[in-house]
Request: fold
Amino acid sequence: MKSNVLLILLKVEVDIHRYVLFIGHEFNEYLSMNSEVEIEHAFVQEGEGELEMEQLYLEQNLAYLGINNTFIKYGTVLMPLGITNETHEPPTFYGVDRNVVEKELNANTWWETGIMVNTALGGGLELTAFGHTGLETDGDGDIRDGRGKVYKQDGTNVAYTFRFRYTGIPGVEFGLWHNHQTDINNTPGAGNIPADLWGAHINMSPTEGFGFKALAGTWQLDCPSTHACATNGREKIWGAFIEPSYRWSIGGPLDQSIGIAARAGAWNDKADESAKC
Reply:
């Protein structure tokens, strides 16, 4: 006599995935302090969980000097790159997790320490310029792993970020951005690795009706032969995605809405690999 037993194991797990706390203080109409702290998985112990200070800066409004629509941030600031890095929590995007293209291409969430100037040029055009600390890789060209996260970070390799943003059409944003790294190498005596990121995006996110997002960008690394990135394909990195969506207003006391979205994207963090074969 034979008997078959089907054993089904169910795993029940509860996890506080992410908690974000934003604290700010306005000293007066021209000077304020802002900070953002994030904790993942409830606590930090034996390599599990994360506790991070993602923003900590003073913001100065230069209107008291007669310079209107111009602000300066001093401290640790989110990088002005792409769509989601500066506004990276739901419901600013569809789904629970951010799109993987920006996660890999723009190293979301990415923050650095420095001085950022933001000024409105008129007609819906805005310019952001940021001088800041740079990436620190081990010569392999891995952009995401190169984030120092302002933990005893080397401040000698200065980097620069520039962004033009147009918001002259209500509900629509166009962006062009560039990041220059003077040296992403963290191995002394092995030679510098300059790197440049170029990208653009469109973000159309109405409260109801048709929406659309698209982003494309590419990294170019100048890798000496002494570094792994000269042969592992990471001298060139690219990524792009599109995301059409539609949102309906369902009203109610909370003015609620519901939406659907579809996303298609591609990326390659070793796009130069074929040239090395």
